[in-house]
């Protein structure tokens, strides 16, 4: 037995601070201003921080309801489900990921599409759900966007798509990338019929989605401080070995350079869309 034995330190267990009767999940800390915001307040402000106007993510359904007259939205193609065509082998199978994301979001895939009215005008619209596999675009998302455009064509209604996506869905490989051409083709037909397409970019809209329908709007709107681009900033920096300008890939940066027509804070989205539709 050694003469000098090193003393063993037991890490002191920190006792949890008393909650003082405040149940968890009632408050959200704003990452921008560090203010604790009451969740009920966030619900009323459409997930916008009342202190600094930071835009928290907004679910696809809440978004659609927030812009439609009388909060009425009629969903179409709700039952469409993705299948693991490529039998994708990774750390976790695509099928198990789909299952987990369906459970988490209550949706079948990363988009909700249908019909509604904005400012009294019938519109065909869809919103992407970032919480579902990063809002990635696979065959189902591509097909539902295409059908949203085709419904607009059929009913002679303007089309609006709210994007929130990391890009194409890698688990579906080429089938994902095909959606870029398919959605763009449908938009060309919509344009030829003289019907408008309004693309609304929310945080984040990247890669394959940005490189197809999201950037093809007759009018392109964006939420404030949303990240928008093709490849991520880090990839561009590493490839080009160049310092990127300040504010690179934000809506404000792209608005200054003419890629985005208007930056619209979420509480003004419905009114702005209604006004736009009157002009178009
Ligand atoms: Zn804030």
List keywords for this structure.
about 280 residues; alpha/beta; 2-enoyl-CoA Hydratase, Chain A, domain 1; about 35% helix; binds zinc ion
Q: Could you please describe the fold and organization of this structure?
A:
It is globular, with a radius of gyration of 22 Å. By secondary structure, it is an alpha/beta fold. The longest helix is centred in the middle third of the chain and has 20 residues, at 173-192. Helix 4 packs parallel to helix 5 (173-192). 33% of the residues lie in helices and 17% in strands. The chain has two domains: 27-56, no CATH class; 58-279, 2-enoyl-CoA Hydratase, Chain A, domain 1 (Alpha-Beta Complex), CATH 3.90.226.10. Strands 3-4-5-6-7-8-9 form a seven-stranded mixed beta sheet, with helices on both faces. A two-stranded antiparallel sheet has the order 1-2. Strand 6, helix 5 (173-192) and strand 7 (197-205) form a beta-alpha-beta unit. The model has no long low-confidence stretch (mean pLDDT 91). Zinc ion binds at residues 30, 32-33, 35, 49, 51-52, 54.
């Amino acid at each position: 037995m050694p003469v000098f034995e090193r003393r063993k330190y037991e890490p002191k267990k920190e006792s949890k601070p008393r909650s003082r009767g405040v149940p968890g999940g009632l408050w959200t800390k704003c990452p921008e201003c560090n203010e604790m915001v009451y969740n009920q307040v966030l619900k009323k402000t459409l997930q916008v921080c009342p202190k600094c106007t930071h835009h928290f993510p907004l679910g696809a359904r809440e978004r659609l309801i927030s812009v439609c007259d009388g909060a009425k939205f009629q969903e179409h193609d709700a039952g469409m489900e993705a299948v693991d065509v490529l039998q994708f082998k990774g750390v976790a199978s695509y099928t198990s990921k789909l299952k987990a994301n369906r459970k988490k979001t209550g949706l079948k895939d990363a988009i909700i599409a249908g019909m509604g009215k904005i400012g009294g005008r019938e519109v065909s619209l869809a919103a992407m759900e970032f919480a579902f596999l990063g809002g990635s675009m696979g065959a189902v998302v591509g097909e539902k966007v295409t059908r949203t455009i085709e419904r607009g064509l059929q009913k002679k209604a303007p089309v609006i798509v709210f994007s929130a996506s990391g890009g194409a869905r890698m688990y579906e490989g080429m089938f994902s990338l095909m959606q870029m051409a398919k959605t763009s083709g449908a938009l060309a037909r919509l344009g030829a019929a003289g019907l408008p397409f309004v693309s609304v970019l929310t945080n984040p809209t990247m890669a394959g989605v940005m490189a197809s329908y999201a950037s093809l709007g007759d009018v392109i709107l964006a939420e404030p401080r949303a990240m928008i681009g093709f490849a991520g900033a880090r990839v561009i920096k590493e490839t080009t070995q160049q310092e990127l300008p300040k504010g690179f890939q934000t809506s404000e940066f792209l608005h200054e350079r003419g890629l985005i027509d208007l930056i619209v804070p979420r509480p003004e989205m419905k009114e702005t869309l209604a006004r736009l539709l009157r002009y178009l």
